[in-house]
Prior knowledge:
Elements: H1 10-21, H2 32-39, H3 53-56, E1 66-67, H4 81-89, E2 94-96, H5 109-117, E3 122-124, E4 130-132, H6 150-160, E5 168-178, E6 184-196, E7 215-225, E8 233-239, E9 247-252, E10 257-260, E11 292-304, E12 321-322, E13 330-331, E14 333-347, E15 356-364, E16 372-377, E17 382-394, E18 408-420, E19 426-431, E20 442-443, H7 448-452, H8 455-461
Parallel strand pairs: 2-14
Antiparallel strand pairs: 1-2, 3-4, 5-6, 5-19, 5-20, 6-7, 7-8, 8-9, 9-10, 11-14, 12-13, 14-15, 15-16, 16-17, 17-18, 18-19
Amino acid sequence: MRVIKYGDGWTRRHFMRQLAKGVAAAGLLTPLFDLIGRNGDCAAAYPPELLSIEAYTKGKLKAGDVLNADNVDLVKDLLDEVAYWQVKHDQRTIDLIETQTDVTKLLPTAYLEATVRNKGVHQIGPDGNVWTKDGKPWIGGNPFPEAKTAVELLLQNALTSSTLYYDSVGYASKEWETNPDDNVDYVYEYIFVGYRTVGRTTLEPHPYLPGHETQLRINSQLFTAPEDMRGSSSLEIWAYDQHKLPTAHAFSPQTKRIRSVPDDARFETAMAGAAWFASDSAGAGDPVYTWGDFKIVGHGPFLAATHGNCHFGYPNWEVPLVGGKSGKKYFRTFMELVPEGYVVEMKPVGYPNCPYSRKLSWFDARTGVAPLIVMYDQEGKPFHQSEWFYDYAIKKPGMQWPEGMPDSFWASYLNMHMYDMKSGRMSRMGIVPRITGGYLNSIDDPKLYYEFCTLNAIRRLGR
Length: 463
């Protein structure tokens, strides 16, 4: 039995003191990363009330309970205001699960090993970018696992989440666009590809792809359905310099031409019916310094779908739906009490016509992952919300296991919600066993570069 030594309000006072200082310092009882580096477990860094929703709510809620309109006020302080509204007023329900303290189940193995191995190697240079102490680009893992500032949190997110924490990913995805009445107006199928050119820990050669050291990553997306979108594709080449916008191209199978995509398209919907902009896609979503006025405005526990959301056991990976007018609006979601996190505020200093006044990103202090973002309109009201759902997937009997994948791995992308508070539209998206055209899921596959990540590749795929 573990004796509780910390009285009511102790953790809240600790977080308030840290927030007042304007700096991050992960771990309440002992430095968090020291524990992770030793055995991967973070439990000793936190008092019991931050490791259990039951302890946090003094027994009013527990793992296995379902959060709904009747009990959500018990944890209002743990939810962003959009998720709170969805549960309180739109019939969304959320399954509560135990907090995961084994950080090796919250990140890819190679990424976590590189984080431990490269601790203290990286720094922010005079130009604001991340460099090793001998002046070279990032060499892999989280460059700031003990981040102290909002800028460090955003920079590590910009580098590491760029290919969803692997050297390369190819995710066969399906996206459903729903209207305010929860009816599905559009369904898209596509493969999303991310390919890292620096900071590589698995693909040879590493840490850099020769000739690409001034780049960070290459992203590609190929649509295979519906028929009028089949063969449409895009290619983004991201500079390492976090002041520069990516070079974006799009291929149209109708014209058989590749065109350049203008920078201001980052705040437009890419497909009919979509409830999100390109800028909504990660903690910053854009090169870090196209935003500014960075501040840590929140520090403490929060609820997030950071594990428990593997859907390979459902037929065809079709996640049950809940809530909304129809009872079929939101994915069934499993959330844990994240014991410690940071909320970073940023403003769009590089976008004079941006529809957002600010953006808030929630970061998990255990991992640096940002599972939640809320964007605000020019009147300061919630506009767009993005939620990511994660899990450590373990092959079990009866599962429709992804072909070619290892028997256990951290799934850096399973499902997402992207919600528009103004219109009531929802984009639900997630990986599926295969999409039209036969494309499957993969991680750390070197062939993805030649198949998807060049102009010739997107032209060839579009024919």
